[in-house]
Amino acid sequence: MFKEEVYINRRESLRKSISNGLILILGNVDSPMNYPANPFHFRQDSDFLYFFGLDLQGLAGIMDIDQGKDYIFGDDVDVEDIIWMGPQPSVKDLAAKVGVKNTMPMGKLADFIEEAKSAGRVIHFLPPYRGENKMTLGALLKENPCQMKSKASEELIKSVVALRSYKQALEIQEIEKAVDIAYDMHTTAMQMCKPGVKEQEIFGAIEGIALAHGMGPSFPIILSINGQTLHNHSHDNILTKGRMMVTDAGAETNMHYASDITRTTPVGGKFDSRQKEIYEIVLEANTKAIESAGPGKSNKELHLEACKVLTRGLKELGIMKGDVDEAVARGAHALFMPHGLGHMMGLDVHDMEGLGESYVGYNDEVKRSDQFGLAFLRFALPFKPGHVFTIEPGCYFIPELMGKWKAERLHSEFINYSKAEQYLDFGGVRIEDDVLITETGHKVLGKPIPKEIEEIEAICS
Ligand code: GLY
Ligand code: MN
Ligand code: MN
């Protein structure tokens, strides 16, 4: 946990941006996996962590904007709990660690909310994303639980996004720790990337590294020789020579800050000439985008620049053709990179996505495109110092997508389908780094993880 002033100051900043009423932030509760006493790994809600810091289940935080008072609701353990859990600090002691003086048992929360409601006060809450908290909110507010997401407070969402988008120095340190854990995960994966090895063995080894040094992976690890499937969560292949292994994996620190790194390694550790050609294009898109990231530029501009690097490279290989700028403007490159260049990262790997992607990455001036590919860009706004982003260009040969586009003769003025089809057994390449926007430019966070061809070949050997 950070020092109590961190949480006091964050709540103070939030208080200033909300006009009146109560802010209710529910922490998460244990959720059963296959029977009640066998829960999933507990993950606290990121907004609760940000403002109230406590990493335990069964708590709720209230900020009374009108009275300037903060509360934590939660229940102290009794002796029967202690038999199973050991002694636990009281809710009062826990609350004091995050600068909250007022505590109440959970059983009083409904009355507290009811009293505020009957006095006509506004209850601000964030969109719930878990069934348990939808039910709790529905019960507290006497509303349909299924509608709680749409009834969330836009004023609160925008205020939280405005705060969490700018990372403090102590948050950057945590993110760098998360990248350092990812360094060990990725270099281990590279060293294990040999013919005959099961994807599952590598997946297990690197998940173990994330657990040994932090809270585990920051999202389900993507690790596959079928890298053309963007979020491939199956690990049931055996590595074979000629394929490339895409590893998209990050760690969560003990303070719950994320890293999100992708590396692509040729099975056996040596790039063949075809792999080198595609890899170098993606590497150039990654390094050029990183070089050009900084204040004064938007992530949409950066995305389009990276798409042009990709298109130019594919044109040199004869896979694409025609005018590069026009091909990108029309979205032809999205056959090979159907996703956005990157997303914000912090306490969540896709930071604040639970609050609504469009509140984080778009605003009244910058609207989401409806073009295939560009529509999936999670953040399009101008960069500001304190933003933390991933930069993750890729190049994929997705047989089903190529088959569909070819049948429709889609963008056939920009795509040389007969050449592109020669790559249908290729898979994909993605290279992802985590970057902080500074006053003057950017900083790539954490210990640099090998990505140059020679570096990867050296690690693998
Ligand atoms: N880790 C999934 C992504 O890169 O967005
Ligand atoms: Mn990733
Ligand atoms: Mn990512």
What does this structure look like?
This protein is an alpha+beta fold and 461 residues long. The protein has 2 domains: 4-164, Creatine Amidinohydrolase, Chain A, domain 1 (3-Layer(aba) Sandwich); 169-460, Creatinase/methionine aminopeptidase superfamily (Creatine Amidinohydrolase). Helices cover 38% and strands 13% of the residues. It has 16 helices and 15 strands. The strands form 5 sheets. It has a 5-stranded mixed β-sheet. Strands 7-8-10 form a 3-stranded antiparallel β-sheet, covered by helices on one side. A 3-stranded antiparallel β-sheet has the order 11-14-15. Helix 8 (169-192) packs antiparallel against helix 9 and helix 10 packs antiparallel against helix 11 (299-316). It starts with a helix and ends with a helix. The protein binds glycine (GLY) and manganese (II) ion (2 copies). Glycine binds at residues 219, 248, 260, 343, 349, 392, 432.
